[in-house]
Design a protein that fits this description.
Helix content: 40-55%
CATH superfamily: Cytochrome P450
Number of domains: 1
CATH topology: Cytochrome p450
Number of helices: 16
Oligomer: single chain
Strand order of the largest sheet: 1-2-8-5-3
Number of strands: 10
Strand content: 5-15%
CATH architecture: Orthogonal Bundle
Distance between the termini: 66 Å
CATH class: Mainly Alpha
Length: 404
Amino acid sequence: MTDTDQRVEDLDDFDLNDPEFTRDPGPRWQAMRERCPVAHTTRNGGGWMLSTYADITAAALDPATFSSRVGEVTGPIPAEGRELKLPPVNSDPPLHAAQRKLLMPFFNKQAIEDLEPITRQTARNQIDEILGADGAVEAVDAFARVIPVVVTTHMLGLPEADQEKFREWTVRMLKDGAQDFTVRSAAVRDIQTYFAEEWARGPQPGARGILAFLRDGQAADPTLTDETVLGMAFLMLIAGIDTTWSALGSSLWHLANHPADREFLVSSPELIPQAVEELLRVYAPVTIGRVVREETVLAGRTLRVGDRVVLPWGAANRDPAKHEHPDEVCIGPQRVRHMAFGVGIHRCLGAGLAQMELRVALEEWLARIPEFSPAPGEVTWSAGNTRGPVTLPLHIGRSTGDER
């Protein structure tokens, strides 16, 4: 075996579920960039992981070679036509453009501004409960997981009473399901059944939100099938919840473990929007899958038709070819460029909404909980498509009281 073969072998057979990798993927990505920028594994369904900004960007911008039909990064790769339909995120051209355009009114500037009051009130309500406790909090369950569930429920026009189901299904599908595909399949069936039953109820007086909008759209456009509508609803539920709570949990973890950054933002709250972007750059929660449609060669390795390709947006964000201090959070007034929401035709439609939720959550938290630090207890990180703390025990220090 040559030295080159040995260097590649050391980085092949990676495990996306390895706790050391999920805790801090940066060292592996950097080693890959230096020695094996395109690595292969047979674990967890198999696939190729890319590590450089250039390769990840090129793949994301080339849907003719890299299909979006399977976005999962672990588990079996379904045969074409048998994959979970989540339009528009796993639709390829030409279907993708019309499906995305249909949902765009719910993510324009005005729509996001309209959702800010409920986002802010939800954050305040949760902080009231946290400050009423005994000085310790599990911040993921008590805060990070609550805000996006409430906002997404409101957007979809679903009953508030079902919010606990949505949290539980999201955890089962994307957290537990990343390692246990039986659990994931059961969660998928539960969500599909829920939306099918909601849809079968027919039009409801005074109904609002995305589901009501899609029902009206279907009446005007018979090509908008039930499968497409229910797939869109499924996507809005899962994508709107999991990615945002993972990003918020990572942000709170960082600020708890880096008191200088926390103190800086408490004293300079006007920089919270820039801090959100920098935290998204370093702790980008999403890794997305693609499937090779046409055989291609990357970094000297041949990717064949049907192979999975893993695109970690975080690896692109932390490539030293693009960022001077790639693994450090550097908060300042400068504009932060990143790929946490992807790039190309599939750049996250909900990017603006997520940015608003993160900004509002941190504004409210830091105004009323300026001092907090890690509490005893292990912090584990989720695997699969989204990375964020599964639990986050924090000690709550002095509160400034209600500054609303």
